[in-house]
Amino acid sequence: MRRVMGKIGFIWVVSVFAVVLCVSAPSWAGPESEGEQTAQAEACFEKLWFLQPEDRVRLIELFRRLMPQDDRRVCQYIDTMVAQNPPSHLHRLVKVLFENLPWYLDNTYHHTQFSDLSRLVALKQEQGLTVSVVLPSLNEGATIGKVVSTMAKNLTGAMPLVDEILVIDSGSTDNTCEIARQAGAEVYQAKDILPQYEPRSGKGDNLWKGGFQAKGDIVVYVDTDIRNIDWHFVAGLVGPLLERPELLYSKAMYQRPMTGKAHPLLERAFTWGQSLPLKHLLPHSTRERLSEWSRNVLHPVRSMEGGRVNQISSRPMFNHHYFPLVFLVQPLSGEYAIRRSALQELPFPVGYGVETSHLIDAYEMWGREAIAQVNLDIRIHRNSPTSKLGQMNYGILQTWANRMARSAPKNDADRDFVYVNFDYDPAPGGTYHFVPTLKWVEEHEREPLSGLPEYRARFGLPCDDQIADQAI
Question: SS3 sequence, 64-93?
C-alpha cells in the first residue's frame, strides 16, 4: 500500500510540475509586450540595410499580416532569408515580396472563414446564383459514396448551397455509378454527352463535358478519390466567389500526405470482414464510419511529401515562365470553383494539363486579381505510382509547350533566379498558413575543360598558339 501511495504521490508531483511549466512557459519564450516585440522586429529588419524607412515599415506590416501576433517568427523568417541568400541579391528578393505578398494576403483564404453556411446561402440567394458540383470519376467505388453523400447531406436540403451534384463517369467497370446514384448524385456517362464530337478520354474531357451538363452559375469541380472529404471542400471554394463578385476562379490548396499500405495479412482480414453478411445489419452511418476507419488503417499516412508532380515539375515551370502564378500554392489541385462566365471561355486539355491551362489562360484573360486560393488544410487520396506520374507530367508538359508557343511569357529580369516555395507553418489559434520562402537559385555553367590552358598542359594537349602555328 505504501508503495502504491508513493507512486500516486510521484505522479501528482510530476503533474503539478507539468501544469506550472505550461503556465509559465510563455514568460520564458521571449519578449511579451507589444513594444518589446516591435523593437525586436525593427532590429531584425535592420539586416535589410538597403530598405528605406518607409519601405521597412511597409514590409513589417505585410509580415505581421502573414504571421500575426508573433514578431519572433517574423525575425526567424528574415534571419533565414539573410543567411541563405547572397547579400548582393537580397534587394531583389525583397522586391518580389513587395510585388506579390499583397495579392497573396488579399486573395488567400482559409476554409474556416466560410464555415457559416447560412451566411453563404443568404449571399447566394441575394445574388440569384446557382451552384453545381461536378465530380469526374473512373472506378472510384471505394470513395465516391462518401464524397457524394457528404455534399448531399450538408449542402442541399435545409442548407441549399448546392443546387445539383453531377457525376461524369469515364466508363467505370466497378460499382462507382450505382453507389453515386444511391448517394444522391445525377450520374452521366461522358460518352453520352456531346456525342457528335470526336470522342476523347481523360480527366479534362470529363470536366469539359461536366461544364456543359451542369446548369449552375458557379461550377465546383472536386476529385472523387478523396478519403477525408468534408463539406468545406465545396463551401470553402464557393465562399470567395460569393463574397467578391470580381473573383472568377477559386483554387484549392492543402497539405498532401503520402499514404502507405498495411501488412498483407491485415488487408486479407479486412477483405474477409467486408464479405461477411453481418455488416448489412449495421446502420448506414456506422458502416460509413467503419469503412473510413478501415481505409485509414489500410493506408496510414507516412509523410506530408505528397503532390510530387506539383513540387518537382509544375511549381518550377510556373516559377520560370509565369512567375506571378507561383504564389498559388497548389497549381495542380483538382478542386476549384469557376464562374460560368469564365468557364465558357476557357479551353480544356482533355488530360491532366487542364489545371495548368486554366491558370495560365485565366491569368492572361483576366489577370491574377481574378483568382483566389483557399486553404482546405489537408487532402488524403490515393497516391499514384511513379510510372503514372511520369505519364501525367508528360501531358502537362505538352500543355506548357502549347501555351508557350502561343504567346511567349514575359518575366521581369528581377525575378530571374528567385525560386519561391512554401513552408507549412502553424499560426496562433490553430489556423495554418503556407508561408512563402524565397531562395536565390542561379545555375552557372563552366566552360569545357579543353578550353583551359591548365588542362591542356596537364594532359599534353597543344595550346592555342601551337594549334595556330601548325595551321600556318
Answer: HHHCCCCHHHHHHHHHHHHHHCCHHHHHHH
So what's the pLDDT on residue 67? Answer: 83
DSSP state of 346: S
DSSP string, 245-270: TT--EEEEEEE--EE----HHHHHHH
Cβ-defined contacts of 84-91 (< 8 Å, 24+)? 84/439, 85/438, 85/439, 85/440, 86/440, 89/417, 89/440, 90/48, 90/50, 91/50
**pTM, full prediction:** 0.80
Antiparallel, parallel or unpaired: β 164-169 and 186-189: parallel
pLDDT number for residue 9: 47
The per-residue DSSP string of 397-458 comes to: HHHHHHHHHHS-----GGGTTEEEEEEEEEPGGG-EEEEEEEEE-----PPPGGG-HHHHHH
User: CB-hemisphere CA count at 13 Å for 150?
Assistant: 22
What value does the mean pLDDT take over residues 447-464? 91
- Paired with 424 in beta bridges are 434
For 303-336, the pLDDT digits (tens) are 455 567 777 788 889 998 999 999 999 999 999 9
Q: Report strand pairing: 336-339 vs 218-221.
A: antiparallel
Beta-carbon neighbour count of residue 40 at 10 Å? 16
**Residues 375-394, mean pLDDT to the nearest whole number:** 78
Per the listing, cell 505522479 goes with: 11
Cell digits for 390?
A: 511520369
CB 227 within 8 A of CB 143: yes
CA 427, CA 73: separation in Å to the nearest integer? 10
The two most distant CA atoms of the chain are separated, in Å, by 107
By CB atoms closer than 10 A (0-12, 13-18, 19+), residue 191 is middle
Share of the chain residues as helix, strand and coil, in percent rounded to the nearest 5: 55, 15, 30
CA atoms within 13 A on the CB side of 418: 25
Q: CB 459: neighbour CB atoms within 10 A?
A: 9
* CA terminus-to-terminus distance, the chain: 107
Long-range CB contacts for residues 278-287, cutoff 8 Å, separation at least 24 = none
Give every CB contact of residue 403 below 8 A, 6+ residues apart in sequence: 356, 357, 360, 361
